[in-house]
Design a protein that fits this description.
It is a single chain. The protein is an alpha+beta fold. Among the domains are: about 100 residues; about 100 residues, Immunoglobulin-like (Sandwich), CATH 2.60.40. It contains three helices and 26 strands. The strands form four sheets. Strands 1, 3, 4, 6, 9, 12, 13, 14 and 15 form a nine-stranded mixed sheet that branches. Strands 10, 11, 16, 17, 18, 19, 20, 23 and 25 form a nine-stranded mixed sheet that branches. The chain has a four-stranded mixed sheet with strand order 2-5-8-7, with no helix packed on it. Strand 10 and strand 11 form a beta hairpin. Helix 1 packs antiparallel against helix 2. The radius of gyration is 38 Å and the shape is extended.
């Protein structure tokens, strides 16, 4: 009998017919596709089918499972038909999740210890009250016909009371310390438990798949794949940029940082990271009339409510994502001689509107929201390095590399760690860069380029025939020195003030405007090609003229 493959995209949930034999199946998570704000989980199970209709039950699934995202497929020796699939919430008195069960047991033990400390505190309180009564009786006037204790008895009794009270005080202090330590453990356990219970807690969902084998000849085994969408999962890109000194190249590592608190641990699953954004919906938002009117509080509230309804309608239009069920390709065996370890390469799958990175090896991500860093790809980019410095703001030269994304992978915006050879030097960010696109890598400060800026002159003088105006002359000196063993390009930026009033006149004296022309924002830029050990001095000089009756703001 030829294996058959039947697919059923589930468009609605149908209630199961009564009286059918329910067969709980043992399933495992084998594949997960993670998006920016959710995940599509695929569970697989094998069932033996007899002639007739049977219910295959997937139990203890996350309560946050999105019902209309259910998708089931099957393949096997059985000539089977998938009739329908349904989901229903279930509340249980026990916790099937092992991690939650362990935390609950730990929390019960900690609370039992806390009750023991409270009981011990109650005993000490009773002992302290009894000592107080004994002390009061010791100092109270003796009753009639009762002899007063002599001095030795009084002193011994007082010493005993003092000793016992000191011991009780020490025991209470010790109990307080134990309570603080124990309360910290209880708080930590409760927080962890609340995070896990936030994804489902003691409430779960059960998914039932109805299948039919028409006859005895149709019986056999059926491999089922159940896919569903759950919130509480996300991934973000992360990069390592390693500048290879002397090679004019950057070794680039591309990673995905995955987090999830869906209520299920993902153990040894085929992990796929998708750049698709299902939360945006399938179509561009629609523009509505932009009206202007006289302010009216009642109308304003109605407009706000209408806008809120439109936003909710747009969010409800999210479509469930498809599941990738392809298997991994095997990796080529490594060489026997010593080689640098290579980073695993994800498989890139591009679509019309997004890209997916299929991680090369099985990954495990626990449901505790801890970050799991998985490799996507590694690349080596040729660079054209140069230094940028703005000494007016910060007398430091920052290395920048002009790079072309020569890989096939789109680089999404994310955090980047920068290394100079094997030394960590800075943290930076990367904007979104598509394959083949040029971009700049900010690679951090380099002390090998020395930069200084100082004001060497500020001179104020009167102008006009009647001394009716003033002129202030500013002069700055910028010094740049290449202390490296290689020739380097350094781009220096400074600025001139801009006049926003015709009575204020700014005149550039140095550098000559023919050599360095300021931009519309008044920015001056020099491109210096510095040899090893070479030092260059740049002068910025300008005047500001204005009448005496004008109060100028912004002057240094």
């Amino acid at each position: 009998m030829k294996p058959s493959r039947l697919l059923l995209p589930v468009l609605c949930l149908l209630s199961s017919a009564p009286g059918l034999p329910a067969a709980p199946v043992t399933s495992a998570i084998t594949a997960v596709t993670v998006y920016a704000d959710r995940a599509v989980v695929t569970r697989t199970a094998t069932a033996a089918l007899e002639p007739g209709v049977a219910e295959l039950v997937f139990a203890n699934l996350p309560a946050a499972l999105v019902d209309n995202s259910l998708h089931v497929s099957g393949r096997g020796t059985a000539q089977a038909t998938i009739l329908d699939v349904s989901a229903k919430p279930v509340f249980v008195d026990f916790t099937p999740n092992e991690r939650v069960q362990t935390l609950e047991d730990q929390l019960r033990a900690l609370r039992k210890q806390m009750r023991g400390l409270d009981d011990r505190g109650g005993v000490l309180q009773s002992q302290s009250a009894m000592l107080d009564r004994m002390e009061a009786a010791l100092f109270a006037p003796p009753a009639k016909d009762v002899p007063r204790p002599d001095l030795n008895q009084f002193t011994a009794s007082l010493a005993y009371l003092t000793e016992q009270k000191t011991k009780i005080a020490a025991d209470r202090a010790g109990l307080d310390e134990q309570r603080e330590v124990l309360q910290a453990k209880i708080t930590a356990a409760e927080q962890s438990l609340n995070e896990l219970r936030g994804a489902g807690g003691r409430s779960y969902k059960t998914v039932t798949v109805r299948v039919s084998a028409a006859s005895a000849a149709s019986a056999g085994t059926l491999d089922l794949a159940l896919a569903y969408t759950v919130p509480g999962a996300s991934w973000a890109p992360s990069y390592d940029a390693r500048v290879l000194s002397g090679e004019h190249a950057v070794a680039f590592g591309y990673f995905g940082v995955v987090r999830q608190r869906t209520g299920e641990d993902w153990k040894d699953v085929q992990l796929t990271l998708s750049t698709a954004r299902p939360s945006l919906g399938g179509a561009a938002p629609q523009l509505f009339a932009w009206n202007l009117d006289v302010f009216n509080p009642i109308i304003l509230r109605a407009q706000v409510e209408q806008s809120r309804r439109r936003e909710m309608m747009a969010k409800s239009a999210d479509a469930p994502a498809a599941v990738n069920m392809q298997s991994l390709t095997s990796n080529a065996p490594g060489e026997l001689e010593d080689k640098d370890a290579m980073m695993a390469q994800a498989t890139l799958e591009t679509g019309a509107t997004s890209a997916s990175f299929r991680i090369a090896s099985a990954a495990s991500v626990p449901s505790d929201n801890s970050p799991q860093k998985v490799p996507i790809t590694a690349a080596r980019f040729a660079t054209n390095p140069e230094y940028l410095t703005t000494p007016k703001l910060q007398p430091v030269a920052f290395l920048t590399a002009k790079v072309v994304n020569s890989s096939d992978f789109p680089l999404l915006a994310g955090a980047m760690n920068v290394f100079l050879d094997d030394t960590f030097v800075a943290t930076s960010t990367l904007r979104t860069v598509m394959a083949g696109e040029k971009f700049d890598l900010a690679l951090g400060a380099d002390e090998g380029i020395s930069v200084k800026r100082k004001r060497v002159n500020k001179f104020t003088e009167d102008t006009g025939l009647t001394n009716s105006g003033k002129r202030i002359t500013y002069e700055y000196l910028v010094t740049v020195q290449n202390n490296k063993r290689t020739a380097e390009r350094v781009i220096v930026a400074d600025q001139l003030p801009l006049s926003r009033n015709e009575k204020i006149v700014v005149k550039q004296l140095a550098p000559d405007a023919k050599d360095v022309k300021p931009t519309d924002e008044g920015v001056l830029k020099w491109t210096l090609e510095l040899k090893p050990g070479e030092k260059r001095e740049l002068t910025v000089k300008f005047t500001v003229d204005y009448p005496n009756d004008v109060n100028v703001t912004g002057l240094e």
